[in-house]
Specification:
The protein is an alpha+beta fold. It has a domain at 93-209: endopeptidase domain like (from Nostoc punctiforme) (endopeptidase fold (from Nostoc punctiforme), Alpha-Beta Complex), CATH 3.90.1720. It has four helices and six strands, in the order H-H-H-H-E-E-E-E-E-E. Strand 4 (184-189) and strand 5 form a beta hairpin. The longest helix has 21 residues, at 3-23.
Amino acid sequence: MPQCSRLRALAAATLAALVIVTIQPPAPGAAETPTPIALPAGTAPAAIEAPTATPDPSLAAAPSASPAAVESPAAPAPAAPSAPKRARTASRADRVIAAAMAERGRPWVYGASGPRAFDCSGLVIYAFRRSGLLAEIGRGRYHSGSAMLRWARAHHLTRSMGHRGDVVVWGNGAHVGIYLGKGRAISTLTSGVRVHGLRVLNTRFTTFISTGLWTPVRAVGAGGAPVAPAHGPMLVGEGG
């Protein structure tokens, strides 16, 4: 081959090798070295400003408020406690009175002590027995008003002022009943078991036999305070 042709072939091979090397990608992990920019002589490098970032409104910090300026939601006022209801506590006298009141309307029969008919002392003994308090009137051994009165006087139980549940005596024992308080009593009249005043019988009031059953009750306006028998003209009624 002539020398000129060999030179041309060598130059073409050399150029092809340079092109391959130039377009080959850099090896992984190899850092590119920036090519320095040549500045004209005597020119100072200008200060490069960092790009200004536009703030994102969604990332703005909430303003911190002074504790005095922040009004906390008002707590609901606690409900005022309702006044407790004062329940009436049943006394032993209430038990005796309830037993006697349950027999209102029963007929009077001489010497009867229930449960279908009563005389005056029979109603008293029956009511105390039903409430389990027969010991308070001599354990039921005294079956007439006069015998109850003698027993009470012997034990210093007679009183001029009565309490609920005491025994009321009229005519020195001719008639007896149970005191309800506030000047009223329940007893067996000839018309049957009735509630009536202390001074409506044709037999004079004598005394109260204290049974000790009355105790204060927790209720507004509770009855049971001592009541002195009123003095005055008696109305003619029915004897027992």
